[in-house]
């Protein structure tokens, strides 16, 4: 049985998004991106989607892991979900900004994502993935490799149950929604979330198709949004998870 809902989330604004310096290695969130995190927590917390998430998948980049902490802060029982760092969801290009760091570098930076408290180690898929930073073979940025990677992640989503959240990147999300949606992929703003259902083909066909659903959000500009009480509470929750 496929998941009830897939929630695809783009990371908050990162340093290279504003500077357009794509030589920055695995850049973190920008100051605005950090201010967007409480808005993301609040948007998800006030959505009925949050209470339904049973699995959370995330690209192993600094900016997506920072954003993942804000998503976890919105969940009623964050450590009850299955959390997995999945290199298949990394960004398209081979530029330094889109090449994730090694697990040995990332893990000390994100102690809140270690196991325990999760029953299974969130880092296990990353440790078993081989040379996921190489941008060669299955990680290459060419069209054929990207389409195959999209096909694999869609197949993985189709094998899961419950509601699955994914924190990833604009470029690869466009590939996935294009490959699984039968057309050109949709665009995301930083921190935006969109909800999809899945249609799984026959055993002989094996195709998985994304179908847009109601739900999701676009973040307000964090510069203009003010610091309302609900957002202050969300900001405290992000700090607690971090």
UniProtKB/TrEMBL annotation:
InterPro entries with a match to the protein in the record: His_Pase_superF_clade-1, His_PPase_superfam, PGM_Phosphatase
GO molecular function per UniProt: phosphatase activity
Pfam family, one: His_Phos_1
Domain of life the protein comes from: Eukaryota
Region of interest: Disordered: 217-242
Listed SMART domains: PGAM (SM00855)
Gene Ontology CC annotations of this record: cytoplasm
Protein name in UniProt: Phosphoglycerate mutase-like protein
């Amino acid at each position: 049985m496929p998941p009830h809902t897939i929630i695809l989330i783009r990371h908050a604004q990162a340093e290279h998004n504003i500077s357009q310096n794509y030589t920055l290695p695995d850049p973190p969130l920008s100051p605005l991106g950090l201010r967007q995190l409480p808005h993301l927590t609040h948007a998800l917390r006030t959505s009925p989607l949050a209470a339904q998430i049973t699995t959370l998948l995330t690209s192993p980049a600094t900016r997506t892991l920072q954003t993942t902490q804000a998503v976890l802060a919105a969940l009623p029982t964050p450590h009850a979900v299955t959390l997995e760092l999945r290199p298949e969801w990394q960004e398209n290009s081979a530029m330094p900004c889109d090449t994730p760091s090694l697990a040995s570098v990332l893990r000390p930076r994100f102690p809140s994502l270690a196991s325990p408290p999760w029953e299974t180690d969130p880092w296990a898929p990353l440790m078993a993935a081989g040379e996921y930073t190489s941008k060669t073979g299955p990680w290459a940025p060419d069209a054929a490799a990207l389409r195959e990677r999209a096909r694999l992640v869609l197949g993985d989503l189709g094998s899961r149950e419950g509601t699955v959240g994914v924190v990833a990147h604009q470029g690869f999300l466009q590939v996935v929604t294009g490959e699984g949606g039968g057309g050109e992929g949709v665009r995301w703003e930083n921190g935006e979330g969109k909800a999809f259902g899945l249609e799984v083909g026959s055993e002989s066909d094996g195709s998985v198709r994304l179908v847009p659903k109601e739900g999701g959000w676009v973040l307000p500009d964090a510069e203009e949004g003010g610091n309302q009480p609900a957002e202050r509470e969300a900001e405290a929750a992000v700090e607690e998870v971090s």
